[in-house]
Specification:
Two copies of one chain form a homodimer.
Chain A: H1 3-18, E1 26-28, E2 35-38, E3 43-53, H2 65-82, E4 86-96, H3 102-118, E5 122-130, E6 136-146, E7 161-165, H4 170-181, H5 189-199, H6 205-213, E8 219-222, H7 227-238, E9 241-245, H8 253-261, H9 267-271, E10 278-282, H10 287-297, E11 301-308, E12 314-317
Parallel strand pairs in A: 4-5, 9-12
Antiparallel strand pairs in A: 1-2, 2-3, 3-6, 4-6, 7-10, 7-11, 8-10, 9-11
Helix pairs in contact in A: 2-3, 2-6, 4-5
Chain lengths: 337, 337
């Protein structure tokens, strides 16, 4: 059997079962946004590692090296945010074809440094090596979280509300525009925002910390694969189901206007991926506090559904309460090809 | 300018200067075998990340997936060993072409797991994604070391002795045989050992810990680029020079026999790379203790030279005390291509 038949989720599941570790200091191994290990008496150490490969995870046609550097860091920051953690240290491992210009790498590292600085993260390790043809960027981020504040994917209970920060689907829309525009210059300011959202997403570190500190969430994940796919991670780890109201999903002006002409692209909000927003569940008792806090701090947090028993699986309901068909559920790294 | 003109060392130096961090918890950032940050009152956290790319860092012609998995872990273990640390946790990020067989990845992970288990390391994170054509394996290893035992590249003083564990050059010889053998079957048991040394090096974690615990070394590094290249890292960080006696370099039976017919291949011991032995410097006062300890614990530790003032740079002396010319000094990842 080849990997493309099994798919990444199948593969990870197979591996996770194989690598169940029983180590006194491991709180969570494979299967969450970051690993969680005991650092000292009060804190957990968080660690996440991501590899970006040219023409799989990014294209130099859309993203200049500077934005690429920023995005590589943002992706790892988002994983730390999803645990409610504070990012601290970054290590990079970058492989470049020998014909890469030194300007390219200077700008790449400038993007890395600026995004790291912006979030108070110190770059403490970096190695470079040669790549045969495609650029490979690996980021490893270390962070920490007080032991009583960490938020896992597991923990959602039936009756919990499902929330998401920001808007969904803009990154997917942006990518679509990048792909389709050819030599055209895009002048629509809303579409330009969506295009920027794709190449330079801003991770929700502050929001993640507040949600963790106030103990508002029962589970959390960042939306990297797409809403439904990531909600499924929460559902599987928490052994529950979930329903999502299509009309509640927060959309940007760009996407709202876009789907007037392209109604099928509502799927971008469900499965576009790379939103890097936080998806979390919270007890109904915290609903009021979440609303008040969001207003006070100027954070966009929207309830989009609720947790239901496992046997109901994950469903999206349209305005009439009918089940909305999910044609393509997420950004599955292998099957997509 | 392209990277191949600047070379990896030039690139890293340029970047390291750019990323000098002043963070209260960072003890050592870019420029050593691992990052060193404060974990708690008594310990430092060590973190290292390495990327292996098919046909740059390994070839499936020589290395089966099982050995590849083991080697990927060994490389990171060796970095932790070079700081005198104890490895603890491993995260992997692996990208595979979609046509990769699931057997291949099962064996790859088996190799990863077995090598990790062997050294008491827990695999706590793993993600997989698609690669366009070449396999990419990233390993991130976390370890720790008591604060008063960490060994940096800097710290060597004039008059210190230069030591190395094990033998040098076998991995380079092994690679040469793998490349040249074609369809021939190698029956010479010594050459077979060298070939195995290349695809399955054993990191010197135990040795590193003992050297650190007994505070025997003033500086340490693992020999990954090649003896002279790695000695240069120590010399630069310590602001000293070094002389190495060619005849003192420990060689395996395989390499000793090989150079009878191929005398120029003595260079493999100086610049072959991927030995994953520990290269360290120690005060003359510790010489006796090192000899006794090595005998007691059955560790091969050989004095190969001594630290001299910076202005003498790095020289290798032959049997007659003449300077041995260094044609190719190490495995420089970019210039090599």
């Amino acid at each position: 059997m080849q990997i493309k038949e099994l798919g990444e989720l199948g593969l990870i599941k197979k591996l996770a079962n194989q690598f169940t570790v029983s180590h006194p200091r491991v709180i969570k191994g494979i299967g969450d946004d970051t690993s969680v290990t005991i650092q000292d008496e009060t804190k957990y150490l968080l660690c996440t590692t991501d590899t970006l490969i040219e023409d799989i995870h990014f294209s130099l046609k859309y993203s200049a090296s500077y934005n690429l550097g920023k995005k590589a860091v943002s992706i790892s920051l988002s994983d730390i945010a999803a645990m409610g953690g504070t990012p601290a240290f970054l290590l990079t491992s970058i492989a470049l074809p020998p014909t890469t210009s030194t300007d390219f790498i200077s700008l790449l590292y400038r993007g890395i440094k600026e995004r790291a600085d912006e979030f108070g993260v110190a770059l403490i390790g970096g190695n470079t090596s040669s790549a045969p043809d495609k650029i490979v960027i690996n980021t490893t981020m270390l962070g920490e979280v007080p032991k009583d504040q960490v938020i896992f994917r597991k923990g959602a209970s039936v009756g919990d509300r499902v929330y998401v920060t920001g808007c969904l689907g803009d990154s997917g829309l942006g990518l679509k525009i990048w792909k389709e525009k050819g030599d055209r210059i895009i002048t629509d300011p809303f579409l330009k925002d969506a295009m920027l959202e794709h190449i330079d997403p801003l991770p929700r570190v502050k929001e993640g910390r507040i949600i963790a500190e106030k103990r508002l969430a029962t589970s959390m994940i960042d939306v990297s694969d797409g809403l439904i796919s990531d909600l499924r991670h929460i559902a599987e780890e928490s052994m529950v189901g979930a329903k999502v109201w299509l009309k509640s999903i927060p959309l940007s002006t760009a996407l709202k206007r876009w789907i007037l002409d392209h109604p099928e692209d509502i799927m971008l909000s469900l499965a576009g991926g790379e939103d890097y927003e936080l998806l979390f569940t919270a007890s109904m008792n915290n609903a009021n506090q979440i609303d008040v806090l969001a207003k006070e701090l100027g954070m966009q947090i929207t309830q989009i559904g609720e947790i239901v028993p496992k046997e109901f699986a994950i469903t999206v309901l349209d305005e009439n309460g009918a089940v909305f068909p999910l044609a393509r559920e997420g950004f599955e790294h292998f099957k997509q090809l």
